[in-house]
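Data card: per-record layout.
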Amino acid sequence: MKEYHSVFIPLPHIYREGGFDVFSHLERGRNGEKNLVVIPMSFVKELGETDADGYSAGAKDVLMHLKGLNAVPKEEGTKDVGVFLAPSSDDLDIALLETEGSSLTLPQLEAKVSEHFRSLKEGRPTIISSDDVDHIRLKGTGLIVQEPQFLQVSADIVNEGIISGNAELYEQVHQHHHEGVPLETAIEIMGRDLFVNQFIKFRSGEGKDARYEYARVVGDPKWNGNRTRIVDTLNEKVRLLSTHEYEKKMHIGDQYLPKIFDITPRDMEQYLALQHGLLNPDVSLFFLCGSQGSGKTLLSYVAAVNQVLWFNKEIKDLRRWRCEGGLYDQMFLLKPNEVLGGSRREIGFLPGSQYEKIKPHIEPYIDAHKRSSLGKQFPFEELMRHPKFENDFGPPRSLAMKELKIDGGAHFPADHEVFEVKFSGFMRGRSFENALVLIDEAQNFTPYELKTIIERLGENSKGIIMGDPAQFDNPHCTRERNGLTHAIKHYFGKPYASLVTLSRNYRSQASEDALSWRVYSG
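The structure for this 522-residue chain is written out next.
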């Protein structure tokens, strides 16, 4: 019997949600010991079937990983064991189990695995599942069942973008108002880690005189040789926002904007999101979280359009844009393949024209367009038309649209659409260059799905990732296990990333109170 430190049997949905990263998470990596992952061929078949349905990039990549392994019979020279062993890394082996006829039950599978392998830690294999029913059912049969801790992140991580400071740090940032407090000192005072682009708010005064002041963790960007990416930050410190920032007027370079297409920040959180995230060229990955009615879509939409339209030379000089057209060539909206009710279907199977198919998914952006001054100047569909050719959304732009001066100072790009909608089912092999990519409803992506999307952000591209870890249409995601919180955990603290969560609901009181109404779909 071959011995390993731990022997794991992840169930198929773990591979769909975690991709081949599951293997790296289950490596031992200590004292020269190895772990083992056991995969019955019935699981492999199931992963192949789900991939054929177009469901999971994770399943596809696991299959490709297994295909590349050099699996040999567990015991050299034997033919009847039905166990094939392959090294996945120095710290992990993978065992493929032949299952004759129908699939084994999990108790039968556990017994079969125990015939050939022994876990030094538990003595028996550990089944990994995130399904509550699995845990209840399998524990009742005496099996060892474990949650996939590597896929779980507390939903509270969305609140890390703006944290509360203490009285000692408040005193220090005021005392060193101009130069700022060194980050190491601030960390010692707060007794916790702090990260570049994080905000710290301080409450001052009492009663009617109470107000919040904000500080930001800043640093000097350290660029790579050709200045295409920020690799680190130097001279990190905590510095109070300047007093003029409380007027909530945005600026891009030397151009000051009291509003963007008639949209103004309604509170300081919205201002921080716009100024230091959405409009900040040094932040190439921005997470914008919040509940319904908090303004995520509206702010992201107007900021995105403002950065892809073409401005005249005078305005570009003010903005310090050294580009021929807009700061980004084009904006893309990427949403999960979810249709109302949480079912997964490719959009091509839906009835109607291309615009009719996607319209239900982009209604919030159409509403944002109408609320801004853009809605008074041209229909939303014009953003999706090509300047020269007919496409799925109609004939080329008219001459009037080509010559239109938007808000008096900008016009459409001369050689491509402004706005494209993409669905996650069509992402394989695609990459985004010089693009502003809005990734909406990120909580409805599994961690592995969102990882594969972010991997496709090319040079001079910016990802704006929006979501609310309290609202789900995807039955494979939960508050603790979803792409949004998983991505925040991975990227928060990177010198090019930032996070703001909008805490206020600007819809009606009834809408706000509905958030605490616990009802569930069938």
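Known properties of this structure: The mean pLDDT is 87. Residues 354-371 form the longest helix (18 residues).

See the next section for split statistics.
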